[in-house]
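Re: the 299-residue chain
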Amino acid sequence: MTIAISPDWTIDLDIPGITVLEWDFKTPPPAEHIDIAVAPHVTTADLVERVAETGTKLLQLGSIGYDSIPRDLPDGLEVANAATVHETATAEHALAMLLYAARDIDRVAAQQREGRWESFDTLGLADTKIILIGIGGVGTAIAQRLAPFETNVVRVARRAREDIYGKVYSLSDLPELLPDADSVIVVVPLNESTENLVDDEFLSAMKDGAILVNIARGKVADTDALLKHADRLRITLDVTDPEPLPDGHPLFEKATLITPHIGGNTSAMYSRMNRLVRRQVGNYISGEPFVNVVLGTSG
């Protein structure tokens, strides 16, 4: 068995009978045949093309999102995402961004730099209404971490339903929900129904001073609309369109906080990716199905 791994990862695979090769996924494949290819952290559209001629059975992505991966795959190839790797860290980051805006940390940081002491009230999180759009793995992790803050979390997904946690509203309910929200957290996957979901109409429905957290994908929000409403909303972004955001882009000045798509980038990412890859290898050896398959014969 041959496995090719991006240098982004340090995977412990000291298992007899397994050949482990390093591959940057930019140069030609390091072997004619590769059974499992473990891609870089950043998912790009050419990954399938890179492995297409190697007979690869599994392309293991380094991200949860796979919107850039083409749906027309070579026969026998499965694509798995990195579910279980990034959810906790991304939820941490979403709360950090939310708290930054809700407690006006930018304002107190400026005061500290100026050597000035000035007390003031902030929105905070307790007793506020937070709309959480997207209740997959990351969304659920965010909701769990919001519970101790005694917030009123309103969950929204593609379709309305009831689950073990209560009522889930649909995207079509947003025009009625947004005006009452103190904060909105967006963590939906990018697809045809969510591209430019956060547009001028969406932002216009939010009340002055409300917080927007986009930790989904940059194209989920319309950049021109963000710029238009940035003076009256507190906009925090871990993702942007375009991405990377060009130097000097007006969003840098207008937004309350921009982080460079680092939601899942913590030390836990490496140990969790290690566990996931080892599980995939074990399943391959034992003949069990791969886990986290999002595209291909089991997708």
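The chain has nine helices and 14 strands.
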